[in-house]
Design a protein that fits this description.
By secondary structure, this protein is mainly beta. Helices cover 4% and strands 60% of the residues. The protein has four helices and 45 strands. The strands form nine sheets. It has a 22-stranded antiparallel barrel. Strands 10-16-17-14-15 form a five-stranded mixed beta sheet. The radius of gyration is 27 Å and the shape is globular. The two termini are 44 Å apart. This is TonB-dependent receptor. Belongs to the TonB-dependent receptor family. GO terms for molecular function: carbohydrate binding; siderophore uptake transmembrane transporter activity; signaling receptor activity. It is a multi-pass membrane protein.
Length: 780
């Protein structure tokens, strides 16, 4: 399978380079004076038949443009027509951004509707540079999953989309109740999933209904975002208010008995369209493929944009999420053999309870001073809480010759989390000399977070997982003290970045960030002799400086080569045996790769080599295993390749391959050196392809399908045994026109038995068996 993917990549590339290209490409984005993206703006080359219109993010692409000099014209009803001279060179891409002023002679309103949420391929992203930039010009690996691709896959949970990102392995964490992934071998923590550029720390599944696109930037993101996992970051961009009116109502259901009605409304609330809104809402209810794990979910997401003037706008977004779902850590293995039980088998109880609440408020104020300077001031506040009362796995009995039993405990837990962050950024676009074009951002971020948790526990019973008898005993009424603490964190970050166009073919990315991290832990300590509690407070302070340097050169024709180096950091709360605070773990990324537009830029191909080394990793203190020391060093290196785009008219493809060699390379215990990372597959790949009829009475009817494939993965940190590799096939048939849309997806088409991931040898999550999911929707 992997060899076939590689052959496809190489064949496409060789064909493209072999063709004598006289064509180029023009792409960019069009915004109003209020800095809002403009939908339906006509973009054309004067005197030719080449033209297109912008999508709802204001983006446009003109493909297969013969080399020469042209006049690019942008026009729309109610806006001043803008013209700009442009020179197209063979095999090159010209990026042009327009600010389109409103016209005093605005014509009557023209209603604009669309049957598709943007393009299957999104060529422009913001995560890697904090500004709109063509991905093919950014000297770092970034992959985008667009809304249109998500709709064709019928994405309900975030991992449905992430299966089609190279270098990403599915994970399970927090009792199988939140989004956790492995990126380039490193597990993503709550520190590395963002929403609209802000850290989005939650302990339940994030809702996908209001996602516009998902950007995955590979490697540490500390240069712009501070605390970051070494493997990469995931940034969710939400749907924004629109000036045009639309309504979309849909119902999704699956064969496990789950149904999800949802709405997506948008439009202007006044005549001059200065006040716009977007509203997404979802209700979800039903069972899952796991016993005793049902779900009930309510999600509301209003968003408003108000334009104070031609140059100033404010966007306010909120999210309300209630999600009831019991935690579930999966099944166990005995002496390296995974229990042969159905994928539905649970170690929990029918009356397990999990209640989760998430609240989010964001605002984004933008002001454009002139053609050079603009300002962004934005803030984010989240509040989340969780209440769990569950019977769950405790351990394996010592004298179980049958290898069939587990002991269980009852845990009563409550935790809540508050996060506040504000970002203040100044942007500048200017030239120095005759050649250097600068796109610069300088910013300050201040963030505060608080996490509070307490839990009590009591031993419960022993369960035979091959012949389980649930609720045999009454639940304990007296629980023992488990833990009670509060973590308070303050972060101050100062950053600057300059994205330079040295020439049209040479891009240089320079940036750095300085962070000050202050941490306080307040713990309640139980004195078992007096049965009283005392409060203990510990503090910690770390600073970090993290630079990045990247260079991209358009070598010849459609081919660009790039390289970058960046540093990252993550604080390590805690102290050594001697009472000294831990230093942050640090990481270094070295990456080199190629980017190319194939078949006249209809298909994008990327390939990259990466090497990430992480230092100051905690390992057990050889003198006292109750403590840790920072002597560990781990490394992940490998190769990734991605092909995304329209291979033929109507045929869209996302294909990925990844080779990841992630292992320990330095440890105080020689036996632990050269041990592969838990949950990381050396070889993985995916393919998702759809074909949609472009003409005739059945226009909008399409079929799709693909697979995700992973090699074997270590099941625990000691690599004592491995989860078996697997290949899962999915298929889809869909229909989409201006009024109706419907889809039927069959997931795990061949009903292969597989495992999504593991936290340890006693927390292994089975994958879902074959299931059918359908969606029907109506636009008006």
């Amino acid at each position: 399978m992997y060899r076939s993917l590689l052959i496809i990549f190489l064949t496409l590339f060789v064909l493209q380079v072999a063709v004598a290209q006289n064509a180029g490409r023009i792409e960019g984005r069009i915004v109003s004076e209020r800095n809002e993206p403009l939908l339906g703006i006509s973009v054309a080359l004067q005197g030719t038949t080449i033209g297109t219109t912008t999508d709802e993010e204001g983006k446009y692409v003109l493909k297969s443009v013969a080399s020469g000099d042209y006049t690019l014209v942008a026009s729309g009803i109610g806006y001043t027509t803008i013209k700009q001279e442009v020179t197209v060179e063979p095999g090159s891409t010209k990026t042009i951004y327009f600010l389109l002023p409103s016209s005093a002679l605005a014509l009557s309103e023209v209603q604009v509707t669309t049957s598709k949420n943007g393009e299957f391929v999104q060529p422009i992203g913001t995560t890697a540079t904090k500004m709109d930039a063509p991905l093919k010009s950014v000297p770092q690996s970034v992959q985008i999953i667009s809304r249109r691709a998500m709709d064709q896959m019928q994405v309900v949970r975030l991992d449905d989309a992430m299966r089609n990102v190279s270098g990403v392995t599915m994970e399970t964490g927090f009792g199988g109740r939140t989004d956790i992934f492995q990126v380039r071998g490193f597990r993503t923590s709550t520190e590395s999933i963002f929403k609209n550029g802000f850290r989005n720390s939650v302990r339940t599944f994030r809702e996908t209904a209001n996602i516009q696109q998902i950007e995955v930037m590979k490697g540490p993101a500390s240069v712009l975002y501070g605390v970051s996992d070494p493997g990469g970051m995931i940034n969710i961009t939400t749907k924004k208010p629109t000036a045009y009116t639309f309504h979309d109502v849909q119902l999704t259901a699956n064969s496990f008995g789950q149904f999800r009605p949802a709405i997506d409304f948008g439009g202007a609330l006044n005549d001059d369209k200065s006040l716009k809104y977007r509203f997404n809402a979802v209700y979800e209810n039903g069972d899952t493929y796991r016993d005793f794990v049902s779900t009930e979910r309510l999600f509301l997401a209003p968003a408003f944009t108000y334009d104070f003037s031609e140059r100033t706008s404010l966007t306010l977004e909120a999210e309300y999420l209630d999600h009831d779902q019991a935690s579930d850590r999966g099944i166990v293995a005995f002496n390296g053999v995974i229990a042969d039980v159905p994928a539905s088998r649970s170690i929990g109880e029918p009356d397990n309870v999990g209640k989760h609440q998430n609240r989010l408020v964001q605002y984004n104020l933008q002001h454009r001073f002139n053609e050079i300077f603009s300002l962004r001031h934005a803030s984010n506040f989240t509040y989340s809480s969780e209440k769990r009362k569950v019977v769950e796995f405790l351990g394996l009995p010592k004298n179980d010759d049958t290898k069939s039993k587990v002991t269980r405990r009852l845990q009563d837990q409550y935790n809540f989390e508050r996060n506040f962050a504000t970002q203040n950024e100044l942007y500048a676009t200017f030239k120095t000399g005759n050649f250097l074009e600068h796109r610069t951002v300088a910013g300050v971020e201040v963030a505060y977070s608080m996490f509070d948790i307490w839990f009590n526990r009591a031993n419960y019973d022993t369960l035979n997982i091959y012949n389980p008898q649930y609720s045999r005993l009454p639940k304990p009424t007296k629980l023992n003290f488990g833990d009670d603490y509060r973590d308070n964190t303050k972060l101050y970050g100062f950053y600057v970045q300059d994205f330079l166009s040295v020439t049209q073919r040479v891009k240089l990315l320079l940036g750095a960030r300085y962070d000050i991290w202050n941490f306080e832990k307040v713990s309640q300590v139980l004195n078992k002799t007096t049965n009283t509690f005392s409060e203990v407070t510990t503090t910690q302070r770390n600073t970090a400086f993290n630079p990045r340097v990247g260079l991209l050169v358009e070598a010849f024709g459609p081919l660009s080569v790039y390289g970058n180096w960046s540093k990252g950091f993550q604080p390590e709360p805690g102290r050594t045996r001697e009472g000294e605070a831990f230093e942050p773990t640090t990481s270094d990324l070295y990456e080199a790769g190629i980017k190319s537009g194939l078949l006249n830029d209809k298909v994008n191909i990327k390939a990259a080599y990466f090497n990430i080394t992480r230092r100051n990793v905690l390992v057990t203190d050889p003198l006292d295993n109750a403590f840790s020391v920072q002597l560990g060093k781990v490394r992940s290196e490998g190769f990734e390749a991605d092909v995304t785009g329209e291979v033929l008219r109507g045929l869209n493809v996302i294909a990925t391959y990844s080779y990841t060699d992630a292992r320990s390379i330095d440890d105080t215990d020689a036996k632990k050196e050269d041990v592969r990372f838990r949950g990381v597959s050396k070889h993985s790949g995916s393919l998702w392809a759809t074909y949609e009829l472009q003409n005739g009475t059945l226009r909008g009817l399409g079929i799709g399908g693909g697979f995700t494939s992973f090699g074997d993965r270590p099941v625990d940190a000691a690599d004592s045994f491995r989860l078996p590799g697997y290949t899962r096939f999915d298929a889809s048939i869909f229909y989409d026109n201006y009024k109706y849309h419907a889809a039927i997806n069959i997931k795990n088409l061949t009903d292969v038995k597989y495992y999504d991931g593991s936290q340890s040898a006693t927390a292994i999550m089975p994958g879902a068996p074959i299931n059918v999911q359908g969606t029907i929707g109506f636009r008006f």
